[in-house]
What does this fold into?
Amino acid sequence: LAALHDQKNYLIENYSVSLVPSLSLTYSRFTNVQSLRLLAMGASQFSDKQDLPWVKVELETIIDKKLWKGDYFLNESFTLENLKAQRKKRKFGIIHLATHAQFNRGAPDNSYIQMWDRKLGLDELENLFSEPLVELLVLSACQTALGNPEAELGFAGSAFQAGVDSTLATLWSVSDQGAMGLTTEFYRQLKNTPSKTEALRQAQLAMIGGNVRIENDHLFISGKKIALSSELSGFGKQNFSHPYFWAAFLLVGDP
It folds into this structure.
């Protein structure tokens, strides 16, 4: 939807876009997400899949560069047991998962989010995030809003059924770098607006306008220049203005 074009502008240049599965989500309860703590987890290395080196940049930028307050866990510490343990230890209103994911239209029971040591099935998501309450779930992975008649909206739909207020998910396969650019800019924008939908829109506009890019061994997001680690030096330039990089992301739930 965000990339619909009227020969002058993309839809997102004029409107915020989100998907609200139930009219009950238009209720008046308001939670200031800016006060919530973030638990970020992800995997950049895999034994049977392509590595995602930019996941490390994504998590480090969000937490270490103080885009958002919270804690992050990478690779070996990205396990179901640790996710549950961290949520018991302290309250995290925002959960961020950056990894591989796949939605299987023909057999949704075979759909999964890849953790370090196992695959997290679609049917496990409801129990995982039902208690305590999660205000925002960010699924920085492929096809996490893709669904079929048996599993509407895929992982995002399961999160909604579990009581998660809002889920930022993707409609198709996304690039490692593009997901990193979109999500880091999203948190930067979310600091300045209480609306998750508007924060996503502003992040997408920043990508369209070239304000989110990789250049000269640095990541540029709005108003911030971040040096890349040595293993990613020499990557060259990457502009994220094409819809491929930003249009897959959709907010499902409370806007």
